[in-house]
Amino acid sequence: MTECCQQTFGFQALGSRRVEADFSGGHLSSDGGVLLLREADRHLSLCDKLARCFSDNRHQRFVEHSLPVMIRQRVLGLALGYEDLNDHEHLRTDPLLAAACENPDLLGETRRHEQDRGKALAGKSTLNRLELGSVAKSSGKYRKIKANADSIRNLLLEEGIKAIPRKSRLIVLDFDATDDPIHGNQEGRFFHGYYRNYCYLPLYCFCGDIPLCAELRTSDRDGSQGTLEALQRIIPAIRKRLGDEVKIIIRGDSGFCRDELMTWIEEQVGVHYVFGLARNKRLETLLQPTFQALHASHAAAGEAARSEGREEPHAARAFSEFQYQTQKSWSRARRVIGKAEILGEKENPRFIVTDLTGNEEWAAGLPSLTTAKALYEKFYCARGDMENRIKEQQLDLFADRTSTAPMASNQLRLWFSTFAYLLVARLRGIALQGSVLAKATAGTIRLRLFKVAAMVVVSVRRVHVRMASAFPMQEVFRSACERLRT
Q1: Is 88 helix (H, G, I), strand (E, B) or coil?
Q2: Average pLDDT value for the chain
Q3: Is this prediction's pTM over 0.70?
């Protein structure tokens, strides 16, 4: 029988020229920028260290995909925007990704089985067994590879602290919890009244744009639960690397304003906190004199503006501070800063609590810590940047892709995403400083720097990657490559 197979696709003509296309381009990749991720990973040895946090009990005689190669495939895949294991059914044929994963058989020519020839990397089923190995109730075939959760936590903390400059004299640790919606019958499924959804409630800790902690938790708990245990690991690790002289400030919203946590921090030398404080009638009463004075000054400013024909001011704010203690939950009185704000016709009171007095000698050169106004506006409000980092990790690095049934494998997915974020963040800090991408998000870096067409030519002596001549970020790419290699 004669085979009728269309080899060429015709399109509308361009002037007098025919426009045709086919699939004879050879080994092409749309992820030429993965070479930068490979250099960053080799510089940091991040995936190799992560692989050592796993135990591999497979019979090595029959192993075609080593554990470090699979870890790199998973982490680099997330950094390149491939969130699902199903994506790797197609990625396993990409020779450039195979090179980035340090797989010497780039074209899959030495695979044992005929149906696997041409597929250098692991498929979805193999990677799925990697994730399910951490589940205690999984069957024997899924228990060959097992993750050591404590080792992964310690590695994330160790690598994160390494990214903090050694000359730092003030470290700000931002804690926050967020919702991770789930859409199935995953283990640990609970309904959260605030988020109005079934979700997990992961706890994050960032130092600037560097993640130090990412713990997946069920949502049937207080949002601050686990923070004290995290601090008891993080602070000694910071002291060990940066010394006892470094000052540490813990920052969080009102969900972390808990007496046990604040009392423990107050007992530590060189450790302080600034937390949001939920408003109540007692606090609003204490702030009322400030509001009265603010209303008077606001009315006077409005009258002056009207008399001069200018636009009346829409908002006004003033700050006050006082000692405050709850009736039952707090063990002592603490310094509270209140913001009295008028927005149009409405009052908008807000409060924070801190153990900083404003008279610390070490804070003399830090204007954001000296006055009540600066402490609220310049320091506390800056925690919003940490929320952007969480969004970046969840939206750009798919930390919310926790769709497996067991919670242990979902925790492992969260860690894979966190290490992918850490790799991109270190690449940004090491190789992209001074460029137009120095402050870009992970998604922007991926779109503008990683997604570049490349032709891969594999020979005995070399792997030649020919990237698109029209790539607009050539200078940034070249500069990043030079910095990583030096």
Answers
A1: helix
A2: 92
A3: yes
